[in-house]
Amino acid sequence: MTRAVFLAGRGAIVPTAMQDDRPTLQRVAQGIARGAVPLVAMLMLAGCTTLGNPQPAQNDTPLYGTAQSNLTSLNEVIEKHPDDPQAYNIRGTVYGEGGRNEQALADFDRAISLDPNYAQAYANRALIYRKSGRLDLALADDNKAIALDANYVPAYLGRGIVYREQGKASQALGDFNKAIALKPDNGEAYYNRGLLYQSQHQHSYAIDDFTTAIGQSANQKAPPYVARALSELAINNNKAAADDLDQAVQLDPLDMRAWTSRGLAYERLGDKDKAAGSYAKALNLSDKYQPAVTGFARVGGKFGQSYPTF
């Protein structure tokens, strides 16, 4: 049996009175809807954890070696072919995946200056703008990519996400529908449309889209399971939510939102020990994550006590 232990770190978290779990669900859902689909590390679940030794964040997954090897090769290509827009576009993508946004933007700028009709470079630059909160610039680049290639699915998907983040639900829905019409096996489009439905409290539609996204993914990732579970929790289908979150935390043991949502599901199912274990796992990843703090308190979690997670 896997167990989790929560130990007080810089300051003890004192259990508070029983609180409504709805703010927990809302905060977790908002966090997921704001974020892009992350890279997921397939890591084994730890037997137990302590707050003093937090596990590495998702961004710390060992991608550096591969990315550095790719960059070395791309640098060599660019040295030999300094006027090749595709080389700059590919290197910009590698920079972007590594969080090196300004270097990515510089490469996409260069690719576009070499080929002003390069739709993919515009869409890639839009992604970096969106990740850094520059939504107007992202929207302009996605529009340009679509003007250059009316069938370029990533541009519709990217623009739909921008519209969703701007609160323009009807425009977002139109773009996600277009992306799906152009590429019906695009799981990411179904996932993002599901997030839109979820934000509109259309949970049955959201669950259908998340289910399709999961079915179409060659490499299983945690976010669609977490998202589907949140909609299941919203309609009080707590057992289905717990099953999805069991899967999610095994796919990504470093996702504190997944652990927190799982805690809520088991709390509603009356399994307070397993709920406390899930909240403890979330708190061991971030002791300031308020939904986990309040959830751990609601189920009477105690510092230093071992709780089952599975």
Key structural traits:
310 residues, two-stranded antiparallel sheet, 15 helices, 2 strands, mainly alpha, globular
In short:
With 310 residues, the chain is an all-alpha fold. Helix content is 65%, strand content 2%.
Kindly describe this structure.
Helices cover 65% and strands 2% of the residues. It has 310 residues and is mainly α. It has a two-stranded antiparallel ribbon with strand order 1-2. It is globular. The termini are close together. Residues 8-19 and 34-66 have low confidence and may be disordered.
Number of beta strands: 2
Class per helix and strand makeup: mainly alpha
Largest sheet, in brief, is: 2 strands, antiparallel
Following the backbone from N to C, one meets helices and strands in this order, namely: EHHHHHHHHHHHHHHHE
Q: Given the C-alpha coordinates, what overall shape results?
A: globular
**Which regions have little confidence, pLDDT < 50, spanning 5+ residues?**
8-19, 34-66
- Radius of gyration of CA atoms, rounded to a whole number: 21 Å
The strand order across the widest sheet is 1-2
What's the pLDDT, averaged over the residues? Answer: 84
**Whole-Å distance between the termini?**
6 Å
Sheet-strand content, in percent, reads: under 5%
Amount of helix:
55-70%
How many H/I helices?
Answer: 15
